[in-house]
Amino acid sequence: MSTGTLLEEAFDSDAMGRPEVVAARTPSQRFWRRFRQDRVALASLGFIVFLILVAVFAPVVVAIAGTPGPNTIDSNLLNSFGMPTGPSLEHPFGVDGLGRDVLSRTVYGARTSLEISILATLIATFVGVILGMAAGFFGGWVDTIVSRSVDVMLAFPVFLLALGLASGCSLGNGCAGGLIQPGISTVVAVIALVSWTYPARLIRGQVLSLKQKEFVDASRSLGASNTRIIFREILPNLVVPIIVYASLMIPTNILLEAALSFLGAGVPAPTASWGAMISDATSIFETAWWYMLFPGVAIVLTALAFNLVGDGLTDAMNPRASD
Predict the structure, then answer these.
(1) Which end of the chain is more exposed for a tag (fewer CB within 10 A), N or C?
(2) Which range is least confidently modeled, 33-37, 86-90, 117-121?
């Protein structure tokens, strides 16, 4: 009989003298119950879902808004001095120095930022989980190689390392013999390369603790192979920290991509990127404040929403939290 179908009888009788029947909840039921009680996390999750829909259906959103495409240059939208014009009914977020619509570029910038950050997080998490489990479970020379590699990577300033790699891979035929071409793939590879160390170290510590548990000894006594123990016994117990940590890595990678694009080592022009938009707006901020305001607000709200959801997941998955 599964845990979700068990009924526990409380012996504290109510006013009528009848025993109170309380339904036991599975861990997933307790998680969703706690998460639903966090209204800030729920609102943040709703914003993230809305943002993802906007990014996926960016052409539809731009068409509904009635604004031109993100790379459409129209000098007629500049004023008589050749400067960008501010928000209006036709262009709610104004235009930039080339006459491109800021609303369209902000919407398409969401697609760029989410695509890069989510892909980089998935790759970094996958690599970190595999290496962390191998290091924690097998120990010995495997643990030594992985741990020393993590130490070496962490010894470098992460941002400067990412900036150098992104700059180098953005020239010529890219990196890895042309396998990684300049553009989004380069930024994703660079961010993943500097991000895998954190989940690897986290998972290694978790595995070192889990492999000492009784259920692992029981599986080993029944003749289970190391592969089965790792993927059938240990990995399911790592789902919670993996999900929580991945949700907290995404906003960090969003900010890293924006910083790289701001410094000209991220997504190449004319692809819309929030960081590149802020970089282009720095020289005209005094006269065209809107060009920096809207992508800047988008970065802040997106990073904040992911952080709040991550905090909500952490609280909901805490086994010591009350229901």
Answers:
(1) N
(2) 33-37
User: Measured between alpha carbons, how far is 114 from 254 in angstroms, rounded to an integer?
Assistant: 7
Question: Are the C-beta atoms of residues 106 and 70 closer than 8 Å to each other?
Answer: no
Amino acid, single-letter form, for residue 69: G
- Does a cis peptide bond (omega within 30 degrees of 0) precede residue 236? no
Beta-carbon contacts of 252 under 8 Å, excluding residues fewer than 6 positions away, are: 195
- Segment 40-54, tens digit of pLDDT: 889 999 999 999 999
Q: Where are the domains of the chain?
A: 3-37, 43-316
- Dihedrals phi, psi of 9, to nearest 5 degrees: -95, 125
* 118/125 Cα distance (integer angstroms): 10
What pTM was estimated for this model as a whole?
A: 0.82
Neighbours of 70 (CB within 10 A): 23
Contact 243, 182 (CB under 8 A): no
In degrees and rounded to multiples of 5, residue 196 shows phi and psi of -70, -20
pLDDT, tens digit (0-9, with 9 covering 90-100), for 160-178:
777 777 777 666 666 666 6
Instruction: Give residue 24's pLDDT.
Output: 53
Tell me how far CA of residue 231 lies from CA of 74, 143, 225, 236, 238, in angstroms: 56, 18, 10, 7, 10
* Alpha carbon distance 229, 137 (integer Å): 10
For the ranges 24-33, 110-119, 131-140, the lowest mean pLDDT is seen at 24-33
Token pair 């035929």 in the structure block, residue: 173
CATH number for the segment(s) 43-316:
1.10.3720.10
Kindly state the average pLDDT of the residues 181-202. 84
> What is the chain's alpha carbon radius of gyration, rounded to the nearest angstrom?
25
Distance CA 315, CA 248 (A): 13
pLDDT tens digits for range 223-261: 888 888 888 888 888 888 888 888 889 888 988 888 888
User: What CA–CA distance (Å, rounded) separates 204 from 149?
Assistant: 13
